[in-house]
Amino acid sequence: MKMTIKDIAREANVSVTTVSFVLNGKAEKISAETIRKVKAIADRNNYVPNVQAVGLVTRKTKTIGLIIPDIENMFFSALAKHIETAFLSQGYNIFLMNTNDILARDLESIELLNNRNVDGIIISLSKEATQGKNMDKIYTALKMTETPFVIVDRDIPRDDCAKVLNDDVFGGYLATKHLIDRGHMNIACITGPMTVSSAAQRLQGYRQAIEEAGIAWNEELVLEGDYQFESGYKHASTLLKKDITAIFACNDLMAYGVYRACLEIDYRVPQDISLVGFDDLMFSSILEVPLTSVKQNVVELSEKIVATMLGQFNGEPIDMHLMIKPSLTERSSVADAKRSV
Amino acid sequence: MKMTIKDIAREANVSVTTVSFVLNGKAEKISAETIRKVKAIADRNNYVPNVQAVGLVTRKTKTIGLIIPDIENMFFSALAKHIETAFLSQGYNIFLMNTNDILARDLESIELLNNRNVDGIIISLSKEATQGKNMDKIYTALKMTETPFVIVDRDIPRDDCAKVLNDDVFGGYLATKHLIDRGHMNIACITGPMTVSSAAQRLQGYRQAIEEAGIAWNEELVLEGDYQFESGYKHASTLLKKDITAIFACNDLMAYGVYRACLEIDYRVPQDISLVGFDDLMFSSILEVPLTSVKQNVVELSEKIVATMLGQFNGEPIDMHLMIKPSLTERSSVADAKRSV
DNA sequence: ATGAAAGCGCTAACAT
DNA sequence: ATGTTAGCGCTTTCAT
């Protein structure tokens, strides 16, 4: 049976008030002797406060709800891990909620977490939720809880809420610029599904780099994929027939599809075609030709999320819209473009 | 502001007791009219009970603690996902705890979850925890909480606690038997680190299949790896010089290393060498030669875990030691052994 | 320097 | 059929 402050009070011959004061560091007026005694008893019996009881009066549960589309997605599992660790060190526990990219489950999760009286909600929207009016539903549901929240990774176009996002535009720019710096002029791009904001943004970064370099825009070089292996393969097969020397695949999975397509027509990476991916999956490092890829900075992302949340708790002025810059992990899939002689 | 039963009571002109009874389905003696009225008010105001308050008196928090080594490991993220979904449908939320395979964090997590008064703990031990005396520490810590728990995936050698494990012996047998059935006689095995129980068990399954087939045991054909890509590569380089026609790599990551080694000496899979992995990572399906691999049944595993936990809650007689049988996902990395002519 | 008492939202034994 | 009341473990205001 767990010990309560009542037990301690009895044993120390003081009131529960005194015990509470001592154990909560509000003991300015309590005699040193009493403090010592109370603390000793608490220590000796491994006293830990009952979180529910404390929560009932303080209206704080010391828990955070984390809503993500899919914990099986490596990006989100990494995120969950870092968030969990960071909050743990602050005395918070994490309720995990998977939505499987279904809007209804976003909504359901928000409600459930609200019923649990979590102190804060961290949410990365389902794909479905990022579309059209659905975003308003989410936003409304979130606001209704009157609980601090922070939007992560997948954006909603509202300014009046805290967000920590990956700078996908910069990521797309980084990948393309790298190719340009190596002398490539004819660079194709296999995008993600354009309904997803990250896809649109990576493409935007690509375009930015192309235009900045004064390269003529060629619509035919950008093909819309769906972030899956197959679409990378299919589009690469098409693109490889054109006059290109490099491909920017907007995620690693599609880049793997590009490798496959190259293999079939006996193209070598990077000798015949340079390739850059996005996500930097663990797998990219053990490929026969390790893939150069844009890496989201999950650690920094997590840190900012935690900081933003704690900032809201403390009513501190916080930077509402944070962008985390990804970086390029250079490996072996990019070579200098051959000089046209 | 959330509504309380007090608010409902006032509005309905009844006592809180009546409201409580109605809302908890203990209203045998309450008049139909009162029931209707109370329910209507509750519904109209989206009343939800305060979990902490309920918990304080019922001593139930409706939360489960999940302790796993690493949510970034695909097996565990899949597990977490299914467990979360299953418990959610029963009204439970999940506290996620990562241990990073560190014993101290297992212990810390158990304590933290205990302080949170979770109703049950699901734990998959850290590697460190599975070694020697450490297991006793875990077991003791778990028992001390007086909270129902179930051990998952990574075993501890005690009979008096609930466990749901993967049948790794059977998995190893399955992989090896498949190779034997295809006519292979000289089958090498690259094991995991022998301190880990799954590694020892997969090897045991391999041995069992070999002996059952009456194939002479050849110690030289089994090499100890560490479940990492590099060790698969290194050992394969050695093994490929010997007179073998097939390799059983005890996880997919090492199998990928085998592919690499084959590539370097121009061996083709499966024409020159047949290969079976273990884990069936998503990646194995998109390899140039898709890998045949043993797949743990995560869904069944999760279901049994949940059932075992709920069984304990209800004091039902439960099967304490469950073994989940993996299955073989056949793809293209295995061919019939060439007939010696 | 310390304690009494009220109250957080709810359940349940015990009236009536 | 419904209400009164005593907690669950804790914080905090107001007395002393």
What is the subunit organization of this protein?
homodimer
Give the CATH class of the largest domain in chain A. Alpha Beta
Please tell me the total number of domains of chain A.
Answer: 3
- How far from one another are the termini of chain A? 84 Å
Order of helices and strands of chain A: HHHHEHEHEHEEHEHEHEHEEHEE
CATH superfamily of the largest domain in chain A: Response regulator
- Mean pLDDT rating of chain A: 94
Which sheet architecture does the biggest sheet of chain A show?
Answer: 6 strands, parallel
Rg calculated over all Cα atoms of chain A: 26 Å
- State the secondary-structure class of chain A: alpha/beta
- In the CATH scheme, what's the topology name of the largest domain in chain A? Rossmann fold
Strand line-up in the sheet with most strands of chain A: 2-1-3-4-5-11
Share of residues in helices of chain A: 40-55%
Could you describe the 3D structure shown?
Two copies of one chain form a homodimer. By secondary structure, chain A is an alpha/beta fold. Chain A has three domains: 5-49, lambda repressor-like DNA-binding domains (434 Repressor (Amino-terminal Domain)); 58-166 and 297-324, Rossmann fold; 168-296 and 328-339, Response regulator (Rossmann fold, 3-Layer(aba) Sandwich). Chain A has helices at 5-12, 16-23, 32-44, 51-58, 74-88, 103-115, 134-144, 168-181, 197-212, 229-239, 252-264, 298-313; strands at 63-68, 93-98, 120-123, 149-152, 162-166, 187-191, 222-224, 246-249, 274-278, 292-295, 321-324, 327-329. In chain A, strands 2-1-3-4-5-11 form a six-stranded parallel beta sheet, with helices on both faces. A six-stranded mixed beta sheet of chain A has the order 7-6-8-9-10-12, sandwiched between helices. The first copy, chain A, starts with a helix and ends in a 12-residue tail after the last strand. The mean pLDDT of chain A is 94. The A-B interface holds A 48, 50-53, 55-56, 61, 63, 66, 70-72, 74, 77-78, 80-81, 84-85, 88, 93-98, 112, 115-117, 229, 253, 256-257, 260, 263, 283, 286, 288 and B 48, 50-53, 55-56, 61, 63, 66, 70-72, 74, 77-78, 80-81, 84-85, 88, 93-98, 112, 115-117, 229, 256-257, 260, 263, 283, 286, 288. Chain A binds a DNA duplex (16 and 16 nucleotides) through residues 4-6, 14-18, 20-21, 24, 26, 29-31, 34, 49-50, 52-59.
